[in-house]
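User: We ran a pulldown and think these components assemble together. Before we commit to crystallization trials, I'd like a predicted model of the whole complex to look at. Sequences follow.
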Amino acid sequence: MASAPAEGTPTLELRDVSKAFGQVIALRTGSLTLYSGSIHALVGENGAGKSTLVKIIAGLYHRDSGTFELEGQPVEFKSTAESKAAGIAVIYQEPTLFPDLTVTENIFMGRQPVGRLGRIDRKVMRQEVRDLMARLGVKIDPDRPAEGLSIADQQIIEIAKAISLDAKVLIMDEPTAALSGVEVERLFAVARSLRDEDRALLFISHRFDEVFELCDTITVMRDGAYISTDATADTSVPEIVRRMVGRDVNELFPKQKAKIGEPLLVVENLNMPGVFHDISFTVRSGEIVGLAGLVGAGRSEVVRAVFGVDPYETGTVTVDGKAVPPASPSTAMRMGLALVPEDRRKQGLVIDSTVGRNITTAIRRLLARFGLITTGMENESAQVWASRLEVKTRALDAVAGTLSGGNQQKVVLGKWLATKPRVLIIDEPTRGIDVGTKAEVHRMMSELAGQGLGILMISSELPEVLGMADRVLVMREGRITADLDREAANSESVMFAATHAAEESYA
Amino acid sequence: MSTSTMFTPTEPGTTFSSRIGGLARARETGILLALLLVIAVTTIKNPAFLFSSDGFRDLLLTPSILVVVAIGEAMVIITRNVDLSVGSILGLSAYLTGRLFIDFPGIPILVVFAIGIIFGALLGLINGALVAFARVPSLVITLGTLYIYRGINLAWTGSDRIDPSEMPAAFLRLGTQTILGIPVLTLIAAAVLIVGAWYMKNTRGGREFYAIGSDPSAADLYGLKVTQRVLAAFLVSGAAAGLAGVLYAARYGTVNAQAGLGLELEAVGAAVIGGVAIFGGSGTLWGAAFGAVLLFTINRALPVLGIPDFWQRAVVGVLIIGAIVLDRILALRQSRKLIEARDQDHG
Amino acid sequence: MASVTAPAPAPAPDIKEQRYLDHGQPLWRRILLTREMAIIALLIAVIIVASAVVPRFGTTVTLGFLLLDVTPILLIALPMTLVIITGEIDLSVASMVGLSSVIFGVLHQAGLSIPIAALLALGVGAIGGTINGLLVTAVGLPSLAVTIGTLALYRGLAVGILGTTAITDFPRYWTQLAKDRMGDTGIPIVMILVAILAVIFAVVLHFTPFGRGIYAIGLSAEAAQFSGVRVKRTKLILFVVIGIISALAGIYYTLRYGSSRGDNATGMELQVIAAVLLGGVSIFGGRGAIHGVIGGVLLIGVLASALRLANVTSDVINIITGVLLVLSVVSSSVLAWVQSRRARPGAARGAGTSAK
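Assistant: Here's a predicted model for the assembly, 1210 residues in total across the polymer chains.
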């Protein structure tokens, strides 16, 4: 089994690692010390530098400075294959399986056991897979294609891959994001057995209850810098949150009181089998409604269906009393809905297009005169919105992909505000954005509410939800489990509703 | 009993594997059945179709050239690429074959075979290098080399034409000779098929082809030797087209600048009909081979059935569209079933 | 970085302040340093060299024949540009040329007047395009596979209907019209039609919301969908349009050669696509312009014409077309790689490439 060569030598150690991409400094002082036989948690807000650190460990990126040692020996990985060969396995949020190939083939791709003439020995392979599955305590048919497997099962297969490679270090990036309660328990059992085999595990997560249940050590990062490492027993959730955020939570959100008026968006009994069930809620003018829940609860799916990007089977959506037909984003837009999606780079922006074009995409038909539109006309409008939102760019024909995360988000917001919506739906408004811009975005949202818009905000950051929302809806596994007023909403009530079925929570 | 994916029983009879295995086999067997059906119906109409001295032989003989090309093309398609230059490679190789016999009288037939294959492999290597290193989509590259190779072919051939009289009789006999009733060309095609299919199923390299086509970025992340495999795929495709060119010369005896014109689309069509997904990652060489045989057999069956063979291309078109629509419907149905099963676990 | 800024004061009332440049680079750089200009420059260079070196090249007679030859390819290249920019492709265009040619001939032979027969042939083009479009948008099939199938199907129908026969008696008025020149210029009358269509497509692509939508779809269909662009509707429209234009090219082809045959224009789809790609349109979608495509079509046409006059055999033009095509895509690939290295030195590019 994997074990450190000398007593006390950490299996993996990074000290003062830094990494910059052009002018964007992703990592300043990344430090991490992993010991075998330990489950180590790495926490930090989005943009804290965790994923950059992981990618350096995995060999995807090359660090600019700092030391990186594996079992006391310095290492320089030039590729992911090298880090794999050295015994480092990373299980990403998006598993990298080959959908057309079987589970067995996925686990052994590139290193299938071979016999004479290079012929793959399928019997040996299948036996090994059965052994692996037994060791992990799961039963997945080894001959089924990887396509269509649940995320939980895909993760287990990734873990099986890692074990069969006899990985010394296993890194799991937000593994419980899309898992149900039972699946999380299964994952924890697997993690503990791997720890007992003297491997070193790194667990990156936002879910403090899980971190405190599973991990023995917690490292905090913030804004690309190392902050602290403590044994779990020696610290508490508020302390960790404080270190993650750097200040007390209430100072962050300049929430203004707005006059709450008539219902603008009414959703009733929205249903999509396999995705969400019986979703009903209202968003009033001037109101900020937070939609909380664990990642994978189905929140993004619900708002995408409301906006029309995804279809739904039954239920109704009305804006200002008028019914919005399903599956037609252009109609939803015209009726006053706007959706700032979760994935800025792939959904929110046409990342390879210019700032000017991006800002005016949604209103291009309105800008056209006699059916014609020119870059000049687009830029006139883009000037207005870019300056209102204080987008930092030199020229309007800069490619959106070159802007920072915060400025990209402003472009997306600008695009939607230009449509003068009645209801603005924002999915993760400040994910991956620096602190300064975060505050600007929050201020903007408050202002918009003050102007009479209804805002529906999905956020996985509890402080953000609690700070901004007038009402908090909580979802779990495709259903709404709670509808809490601002007074009733706090970390406990929200987290409880996020992790328990509706009958058990109090509303 | 919950149908959760976590607790799928692993007994042989009810496993996903046997169900999926059944499905995969279904495609190849489906084509085989269609083939048998076509032959049966046509033979009923005219027994000579199958039962004459030439009938059975021709059924096996005529498609063998396309079978060889389709096998190479399928290997490329499985890696999520496409090779549109195979027709031009065949034309060049066929003409080269003729010229070798003319310019080097007495040259052993085996040497000619070897040269044809190597020549095709080199042309394929050019394709592969451009695709693998320059990271340019194979559709465009092989479109370009289709033109270039065809142009070279025209330049070299001019208005010249290779006649049967210019090639050794022994070589031409290969074109129609049979061993134990099975044509030699068919045996060659079968050998290529068996070796190729074995490689794809049973070696690491073969499985990596599927991985690369299934998810190219995952293959990169995994550390698979993507460049090497893609190069190999195009090399094989070129070599197969080269071999097919030699076979063409043996079969038809006459080679002009039109040899192989339009063959690439037939090869891609055969593969698609045979169950090779156009975006790679799935399908077998067996399917591509059967697809090629089916295409050719239908072409020959049409006139016997009273349909002027002018309609054969239309039939090919319908088959191709039908095949991909069928694949899509099956895929949709399968994913819907999986989502519903998942929903039952959690709901 | 760690401290919170106090909420900024409300922005100044004059929001029309010119805070941004419209363009990051001066006009001349934007216009001249493009692939389209490179092709047009190459075209001009080839014309100059050919006029000097090849006898009889610079005459109006040559120009006239060149344009007549190039017309069907130019016609189809216009909508093909839009199709490829959205990230799709249509390989069935030449088969539709053949099919419409056959339908046109058959209907005329059956007694219908030329205009009516032409209109119905255009209708067939629309139907064919709709079939392609529905298979791609409604059924969700990849356009490459679909149009390989319809390439065979439409050609098969064309050949099936006429077999090996040809229909050749068309009214002289119309066959002449297809070939007549305007006065002494040597420019064929059909070029008026071509010019009008070129202007329409250029305007639609570059100056309408619909055209903006096309670029958005090509660059990121998902983001376009999220922004309210009707992706499926746009693609369906483009397939119908290219079907109609292919049919139009078929009618022209038939009248120009005075012959309606099932195998008319076999292989033309490759010439169209080669010209479009040469003209700077990216096969990945999202980038390209009409003037570049026109340049690409003319470049191939001029080369073919010049070489023919210089008594060089047609194979050489094939080789040159192929080499140009390969060079054009390899060079964009190299250019993109160089640009990415310059923009982010030392950064890994996405998954899996070895870190530097």
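Confidence is low (pLDDT under 50) at residues 1-14 of chain B. That may be worth checking against your pulldown data before setting up trials.

User: Thanks, that helps.
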